[in-house]
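TA notes, week 10

Several of you asked for a full example with nothing omitted. So below is the full record: structure tokens for the whole chain, then the designed sequence directly under it. When grading your own attempts, check the secondary structure regions first.
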């Protein structure tokens, strides 16, 4: 099942830093005693995010954190520990991490982070979505979903394996949305699809992946998971 490779991959880049200090507020997390030490996995994630204070591009910042937790399988308790640590140890690095978490996480973890700092800006918006349906002849669906931070557009491209029950197989992010659409159009007809419908397909596909821990997936599926969860939540308001 071929999938187009992105014309430009996104890598974090160092730029000028924001030195604004966080406004600390009490952090209340159920089922987790305050002061619980970070686990080795959480420590590794904090180390991987140490350069966030130098990253101002919002997409690069998201990718930095999403890649950092790719092998961690984070749950609410994981995020609670990370957020509590960042709040309890104020620094430019931890402030930058909290701001990305306040913007990129979903559910209660996002609320916990947003209770300590203002979310990173600008806000994320969703654009159009397109589907290439090769389920009958090749056994897969491909989706292109467009997003933007203010005027800075990007897209995510997904491959859903219909032969394996609709499990996500590949995913990547690119800043060149027209090129991604053009490559998919060479594989088959590219049809516009509503944003909610597209993200419903993605939500269903990722749920199936979560149920099958042994399913073979491209490493970028794990590296971009934080981005995908945020965009699914955005599409459904």
């Amino acid at each position: 099942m071929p999938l187009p490779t992105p014309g430009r991959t996104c890598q974090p880049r160092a730029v000028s830093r924001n030195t604004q200090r966080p406004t600390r507020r009490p952090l209340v997390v159920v089922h987790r005693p305050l002061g619980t030490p970070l686990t080795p996995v959480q420590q590794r994630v904090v180390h991987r995010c140490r350069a966030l204070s130098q990253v101002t591009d919002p997409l690069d910042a998201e990718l930095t954190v999403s890649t950092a937790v790719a092998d961690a399988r984070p749950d609410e308790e994981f995020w609670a520990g990370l957020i509590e640590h960042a709040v309890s140890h104020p620094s430019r690095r931890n402030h930058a991490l909290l701001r990305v978490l306040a913007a990129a996480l979903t559910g209660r973890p996002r609320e916990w982070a947003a209770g300590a700092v203002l979310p990173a800006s600008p806000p994320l918006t969703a654009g159009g979505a397109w589907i290439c349906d090769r389920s009958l002849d090749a056994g897969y669906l491909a989706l292109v979903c467009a997003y933007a931070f203010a005027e800075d557009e990007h897209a995510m491209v997904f491959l859903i394996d219909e032969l394996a029950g609709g499990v996500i197989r590949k995913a990547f992010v690119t800043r060149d949305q027209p090129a991604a659409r053009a490559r998919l159009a060479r594989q088959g007809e590219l049809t516009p699809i509503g944003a909610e419908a597209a993200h419903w397909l993605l939500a269903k596909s990722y749920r199936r992946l979560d149920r099958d821990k042994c399913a073979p997936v491209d490493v970028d599926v794990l590296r971009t998971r934080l981005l995908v969860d945020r965009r699914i939540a955005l599409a459904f308001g």
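The chain has two domains: 1-121, 124-235. Use that as a sanity check on your answer.
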